[in-house]
Structure formats: C-alpha cells, structure tokens
Amino acid sequence: MTIQRILIVSGTHGNEINPIWAVNQFNSKENTNKKGIEYKFIIGNPIAYQKGCRYIDADLNRSFNENNNYHQQKKSIYEIDRANFLVDQFGINGSQPCQIAIDLHTTTANMGTSIVMYGRRFKDFCLAALLQNKFGLPIYLHEKDQAQTGFLVEAWPCGLVIEVGAVAQNFYDPKIINRFLIIISSLREEIDKLKNNLIELPKELVVYVHQGSIDYPRDKKGDIDGLIHPKRINQDWKMIKKGDPLFIDRQGIIHKYDGDQEIWPVFIGEVAYKEKKIAMSYTKKELICCKNEWVKEFESL
Question: In whole angstroms, what is the distance from residue 23 CA to residue 8 CA?
Fold first, then answer.
C-alpha cells in the first residue's frame, strides 16, 4: 500500500467551526507523520471562516466540478479559485499529493456522527467499511442528484465526508469536537491494520441511498408556508411510511408522505439547506456485500 498522505479538510463551510478546533487540538498533540502516513491539514474556506459565514460567493463544497453552474458564470468566484488551489496543492498530481481526502462537516440536523459518500467508488466503500465496522456509523450514499455536484472529496482518488450534529452554526460544542478527534486519531490506525492484514472488512454494509429531496410547503410568492411536523423533528434515520406527517402549514393542514416506498429521512431541517430549497432528503436502506475488490482498489492508492 502506497498511501503517503491523507488530506484532512476542516472549514469547508466557514461557519462550521468545531472541525477546525478539533484539527488544531489534534495537530498540537500528535506527530503528523506516523506509521508512514502523513496528515496534511487545511482550512477549506479560510475567508468564510474569518467572517463566520458558510461561503463568500458560492458553496465551496459544490465548486469542484467544471461542468456545474458555478463554473459557467463569467464573474470571478472566490470558491472556484479556492477549489483550484486545493487541487493544485493537494490533488493527486499536486505539489503535495494526497491519496485520500477526509472532509469534516457539522450539521444543524440531528444526524449524530455519520459518513457521507458520493457515488460507488470501491476505494470509498473500503474506507467507509473500516469506519462503519469500528464505530457503527450510518452511511449516507449521495448519488444521482444532478442538482448537487462538485463535492470536494470527489476530486481525490478516495474520499469521505464525516458529518457530525446536531450543533448550531458558529457554536463550539466539546462533545462534537471530541467525536471528530476520535475519528481523526483512529483513521491512520485502521488503515495500518488493513495494510498489515490485521483487520477484515465486515460481510456487508448498511447504506442509506439518496432518493431525492423535498422542499418546505410554500405560498404563491415562494415563501415558506409550513413547518416541519413535530413528529419529524430530530428524527433523522427514522423510517417513514405512507401517511406519516411531514409538515404542518399555517392553516393547520398536515402534509403527509404519500409515497408507497418506505424511506429514511436525513438532514431534517438543516439550516444551510433552506437556500437550496431542501427541508429534508429521502433515502432507502440498502445492504451491500463487501467485496475483496474494494481492498485491492484501496491498496492500489
């Protein structure tokens, strides 16, 4: 296995400050070069972090795809320039190439600690399996959503998002910080165990596969005209079936889920997603058998 560097990105969204604290705390106590694998740490969006906002011109975590809308705009966009810098510096062909990227995020939704994957790359599955096997973390597989592209970790050969919540934006929470520290400190150890055949992947992964997103009820002017139903608040990862309440509007009318398929919601009420017109996203649960090819692909990094 030729993994030499793992890129740890915090502050991809500038108002998600707990990962930055965790990285600084970890980096001050740990030797960054250990067991042959070096950590590289970077604040994804330092100007947004200084200003305490999510981004300056555009969402950095949607800025790594040259075919998306951000790149079609003629005006200069800070996050596009920042994405290009990160790839030029730490991409696989960069001046300090990293084989793996771990992007640390927080959410205002009650997601607990979870893994977010984009697509079905074998290397990503292998790394996600290691973490789910050790910590039992739920995996959100985000795919087939043309409106949401250009994610940071997709620009590296292997990469995952670690998402922790619930925590308010720009609020430090020691419990949230500690969760990040646990993940960061164990990542290198788990990879080393795999490299030395001291660990096996589980037989299968439990994965929550993205199906779509739903907006809040809105009036004719486009303003939000309904609230997330009390029975849905803080119920991320909890199954919804036909007839279950989703929203309650100003008139007291309850909007119910009318699909026939059982679904599992995630990012319920995420504050940052209101601008994207997302009140929650739907997933279906899928069991995926682990494959030896995952390990072989991972070892080829």
Answer: 8
Lowest mean pLDDT among 57-71, 149-163, 256-270: 57-71
CATH class, 5-206+289-299 region: alpha beta
Residue at token pair 């997103």? 213
Domain boundaries defined on the chain: 5-206+289-299
Q: Rounded CA gap, 273 and 12, in Å?
A: 15
- Say which residues have a Cβ less than 8 Å from residue 69's Cβ, sequence separation at least 6: none
* Closest to 227 measured CA to CA, from 267, 260, 174, 268: 268
Q: What is the pLDDT of residues 12-32, one digit of tens each?
A: 999 999 999 999 999 877 655
